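Progress against Task 2.4 (sequence-to-structure conversion) is shown through the following example record, which the project officer requested during the mid-term review.
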Amino acid sequence: MTAALRAGGVAAKDIQTSGLSIWPNYRDNSQTPNGYGVSESLTATLNGLAAAGAQIDAAVHAGGNAATVSGISLNLTDTSALLAKARASAVADAKAKAAQYAKALGEPLGPVLSITDQAPTQPYPVYAADSAAGAKSSVPISPGTQQLSVSITVVFAV
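Structure tokens generated for the chain above:
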């Protein structure tokens, strides 16, 4: 399976043994093992959505009937630009709302006294019905969309 993933373009650094189990097999209440069973788990990071279905398909075919695929997750690799944009929007929204409150009070909006940025939440999937990228691969992968959010608290003087 590792060779099939590598042949499909997955970098060696993106393939990791994530579990290995070896256990003895006994026959007829014997105290001596007559063989051993082995199970190995691999974790692979597939960096190209368009190729992911074909890479999974090749790995499963290489593993045959012993192969099981589980725990597939789709993640954004770099959220920094998206989070920066979300923070800027959140600050602008906080300022607009604060200005509305100040106006309603008949007071000018003062300077920012404090700003707190809570830790960003992990992106969570918002599933789409189908995708063109998924239709091209051997194993259909429907990426849906990812949603990021930020939460800030801004205190203004009034």
